Amino acid sequence: MLSRAQINKAINDKLKAEFPDILIQSQDVKEGFSRPSFFVSLETNRTESFQFNTLREMTCRILYFPKDRYVFKEEAYDVMDRLEKLFGLNFPVAGRVITIDGATSDIIDKVLHYDFDFTHYDDSTYEEPGGGSQDLMREVNIRG
After folding, report:
1. What confidence score (pLDDT) does residue 132 get?
2. For residue 4, which of 63, 54, 60 has the smallest C-alpha distance?
3. Which of 108, 92, 110, 109 shows the shortest CA–CA distance to 100?
4. pLDDT for 75-93, tens place per residue?
């Protein structure tokens, strides 16, 4: 099962490769952070468990704090364009490829907000009562 930490690391790795000189903040952004920098967070919009798999609908929120908080528009537009290319279709995570459903971007309070949604299925964490789990159904050959 893909953990949120694995997904977050894969996203951060793509950002580091595209923007090697820009810091990725790992703590909550409040005050006293360096610029330029990114802040990445994951939100789970919906989780639905089935017997053999789990569906997760998630949103990745990438905040970009430009170098200069007063002259920022051109820099923010450049980063916005690069993020759209970087996360346009999909991204790899732990040997899998997750397809991106859609993305939005906006500049709010002089900070670039780039969000993209994705959905993925994973092995279920469901266990049968009593601790056992069921094997997946297999093909049955009937002769007769």
Report:
1. 54
2. 60
3. 92
4. 999 999 999 999 989 999 9
Instruction: Give CA–CA dist 31/9, Å, rounded.
Output: 24
Domain layout of the chain by residue ranges? 4-123
Q: What is the pLDDT of residues 18-71, one digit of tens each?
A: 999 999 987 665 667 789 999 999 999 998 888 888 889 999 999 999 999 889
CATH-assigned architecture of domain 4-123: 2-Layer Sandwich (3.30)
Q: Provide the 3-class DSSP secondary structure of residue 126.
A: coil
Helix H, strand E, coil C: the string for 6-57 is HHHHHHHHHHHHHCCCCEEECCCCCCCCCCCEEEEEEEEEEEEECCCEEEEE
Closest CA to 116 of 45, 55, 38: 45
Q: What is the pLDDT of residue 139?
A: 77
Could you give the CA distance from residue 66 to residue 80 in angstroms, rounded to a whole number? 11
